[in-house]
Amino acid sequence: MAATVTRTQTGVRIESSLLKVLKGLAEYTNLTLGDLIEGIVLHAFEGKAPFSTETCEVIAQLKSVYGCNLTAADSHKLAEND
Fold first, then answer.
1. Does this model's pTM top 0.85?
2. Of all helices (H) and strands (E), which one includes residue 25?
3. Which of 21, 61, 65, 66 has a CA that sits 20 to 30 A from residue 4's CA?
4. Each residue of 33-45: pLDDT tens digit?
């Protein structure tokens, strides 16, 4: 049985090319952006990889298309343009 949840609308700021990749991935996986992010976070909270090898290949393609060169090493080190 599926868990029943309450969702909250939020205005999250996120790097532009990363958002494009996430939106493309959501479309590829036939999920809403919110459902995709929830899945990623729930996997991360359990220390599990959220994506299959095939999906990682799609992510690499989307990153190339949208010019997203960010990696985990960039996390918490990004500076905004003025």
1. yes
2. helix 16-29
3. 21
4. 999 999 999 999 9
Instruction: With beta carbons less than 8 A apart as the criterion, state whether 61 and 8 touch.
Output: no
Please report whether residue 80 resides in a domain: no
Domain count, the chain: 1
Number of other CB atoms surrounding residue 63 within 10 Å: 19
CA distance 34 to 45: 16
- Position 27 in a domain: yes
pLDDT beyond 90 at 27: yes
> Domain of 57?
16-71
- Per-residue confidence at 51, pLDDT binned at 50, 70, 90? very high
Sign of CA dihedral 33, 17, 25, 70: negative
Provide the phi-psi class of 30: left if phi over 0, else alpha when psi is between -120 and 50, else beta. left
Comparing CA positions, the residue from 27, 35, 9 lying closest to residue 66 is 27
